[in-house]
Amino acid sequence: MASEPELQRLYLIGMPGAGKTTLGRGLAVAYELPFLDLDEEIVRREGRSVADIFAAEGEDYFREREAATLREIQQQPGRFVLATGGGTPCFHHNLEDLLADGPVLYLEVPVAELAARILAAAAQRPLLAGLPDRAALISRLDETLRYRKRFYDRAPLRCTADACTLDNVRRLLAQYLPLA
Ligand SMILES: Nc1ncnc2c1ncn2[C@@H]1O[C@H](COP(=O)(O)OP(=O)(O)OP(=O)(O)O)[C@@H](O)[C@H]1O
Ligand SMILES: O=C(O)C1=C[C@@H](O)[C@@H](O)[C@H](O)C1
Ligand SMILES: [Mg+2]
């Protein structure tokens, strides 16, 4: 692609199942940057899964670890693409810290599509596990998104559903960033 910008740090935000990890890995390859996933960094430091952390310690503890891990990553020098957790921008000072450090891209995906993606792996998502059926999942996602939208909407960059492709996002970034 012509006129590629010099991307230092890129943060992906959005609901569970929005594709942050999938797209983040692709963008990291495209820009030759290390890829980091905040959930995975927390899991590595804690030595247990996100579901186990929620079950044993509760959400407040997880949110505190999430914020501390984000801070730690941001304090290290170097370039990277970071896929955040679904709730990351909505707790503590995280959104301000993301916005201050690099372009933030919101992956906006309709709730019905999120539900379809999530149903296959609901057990790995503690806040969504145990919902009896698709209607209940959609209703929970709707309610969650209604609250979180105010945070997600502050991202300066956004792609929506099928437009969240590697090529589209690279074009968005090329328009947004000063050229190297
Ligand atoms: N653009 C896409 N179109 C269709 N399916 C997708 C797309 N991107 C990701 N998926 C699928 O949706 C599921 C969720 O993707 P992914 O794990 O990347 O989302 P996430 O935003 O990182 O979720 P979480 O917040 O739970 O970490 C995966 O099964 C993935 O293969
Ligand atoms: O949407 C959320 O609040 C969460 C999403 C996941 O990425 C994990 O960070 C955790 O399961 C919480
Ligand atoms: Mg992910």
Automatic annotation (TrEMBL):
Keyword ATP-binding: yes
Keywords associated with the record: Amino-acid biosynthesis, Aromatic amino acid biosynthesis, ATP-binding, Cytoplasm, Kinase, Magnesium, Metal-binding, Nucleotide-binding, Transferase
Cofactor note: Binds 1 Mg(2+) ion per subunit.
Pathway: Metabolic intermediate biosynthesis; chorismate biosynthesis; chorismate from D-erythrose 4-phosphate and phosphoenolpyruvate: step 5/7
Chemical reaction(s) catalysed: shikimate + ATP = 3-phosphoshikimate + ADP + H(+)
InterPro entries noted in UniProt: P-loop_NTPase, Shikimate/glucono_kinase, Shikimate_kinase/TSH1
Binding residues annotated for Mg(2+), in chain numbering: T21
Cofactor(s) recorded in Swiss-Prot or TrEMBL: Mg(2+)
EC number in record: 2.7.1.71
Binding site for ATP: G17, A18, G19, K20, T21, T22, R125
Subcellular localization: Cytoplasm
GO MF assignments: kinase activity
Positions with a binding annotation for substrate: D39, R63, G86, R148
Domain of life: Bacteria
Keyword Cytoplasm: yes
Assembly and interaction partners: Monomer.
Family stated for the protein in its record: Belongs to the shikimate kinase family.
Annotated function: Catalyzes the specific phosphorylation of the 3-hydroxyl group of shikimic acid using ATP as a cosubstrate.
Name of the featured protein: Shikimate kinase
Organism: Hymenobacter yonginensis
Gene name of the encoded protein: aroK
